[in-house]
Amino acid sequence: MNLEGFRPNDFTFSSILGSCSVEQGTVIHQCIASSVFTSDTTVQNALLNMYAKAGKIQRAKDLFDGIQKRTLVSWTTMITAYSQHGRHEEALEIFKNMILEGFEPDDITFISILNACSHAGLLYQGWFYYTCMSEDHKLPVSQEHHACMIDLLVKAGWMSHAEDFLRRLPSHSDPILWRILLNACSMHGEVARAARVTEIMSKLEPNDDSHLVLLSNVYKTSFSQGFRVLGG
């Protein structure tokens, strides 16, 4: 491009950074640092996303701290980076700071926050964010948000609450959500619930028998655990 007389712009850098390796991105970052785009927020967000996806969290945080004109994309990218790499408390702290600085979260921001709560076992905090998403921020709640909440409930061992929650959803006929619950039945050894969920999934997806395999795994897990108890 440069050899033919074309000069890259912010869109060019953002596109390249979205598809390159972290090694290539680091070289591009060095080029950006000596150009007029070093303080361009769009380019900085692309760099932030590149480092975050590569797991270079401290590098991403250093870059985030240096962004003078942060956007919602900047905040959400940093929250997602922390959430996806097990640094859940830091994700929640960034979210609080974002709100304090007057930024309004969007649906993607809340997916990252709910995931952070789920992995950190913050049941009540997760419920709070799920509720205020629609009531305070007037955002539509999607299947992904529902999935986060079901995951949060089952990881906390609240299986009955998870099933009740799912049955009351407008999207209660979504097999993806029921599959989350069925997988959790195996983890918690809930045979009766697994059989009930499998029956529902058989009606929703009559041509897919993968849920029968999952049910079989629940029986095997429960049977194995029963033997350990009897043998212990």
TrEMBL record:
What Gene Ontology molecular function terms does this protein carry? RNA binding
Please provide the record's keywords in A-Z order. Answer: Repeat
One biological process term in Gene Ontology: system development
- Record PROSITE patterns: PPR (PS51375)
Q: Does the keyword Cell inner membrane apply?
A: no
Q: What Pfam families does its record include?
A: PPR, PPR_2
Where do the PPR repeat units fall?
Answer: 40-70, 71-105
Is Glycosyltransferase found in the keyword set? Answer: no
Q: What's this protein's name?
A: Pentacotripeptide-repeat region of PRORP domain-containing protein
Q: Which organism is it from?
A: Selaginella moellendorffii (Spikemoss)
